[in-house]
Design a protein that fits this description.
single chain; about 100 residues; mainly alpha; Arc Repressor Mutant, subunit A; 2 domains; elongated
Length: about 100
């Protein structure tokens, strides 16, 4: 029987629950909130989280270096902005070429 949920959805849902449960202010009802947001059965999500905890597997959110990720994203944003400026200038150049009379 094919799985109704993708592995990516399962992983992300588990991460969201574990992240919410790590904060005492949001721990209560974390499974219910995440399940409702993702339109997943609460019991299904509860089972996924329980199995994940029993497996002892680490969660990617625990091992992410946020400062390094932030630097990488800022660098990517700067590169995208530079590329955007180049494309704007190229667009203006070619638009001017089209308006120029040809011999």
């Amino acid at each position: 029987m094919p799985s109704k949920y993708t592995p990516e959805l399962k992983t992300r849902a588990i991460e969201l629950v574990l992240h919410a449960q790590a904060d005492p202010d949001t721990a209560r009802g974390a499974v219910s909130r995440v399940a409702d947001e993702l339109n997943i059965s609460r019991e299904t999500l509860r089972i996924w989280v329980r199995k994940h905890k029993e497996s002892g597997a680490s969660t990617p959110t625990e091992s992410v270096d946020l400062e390094a990720e932030n630097r990488r994203l800022r660098k990517e944003l700067a590169e995208s902005q530079r590329a955007n400026e180049i494309l704007k200038k190229a667009s203006a150049f070619f638009a001017a070429e089209l308006d120029r009379p040809h011999r």
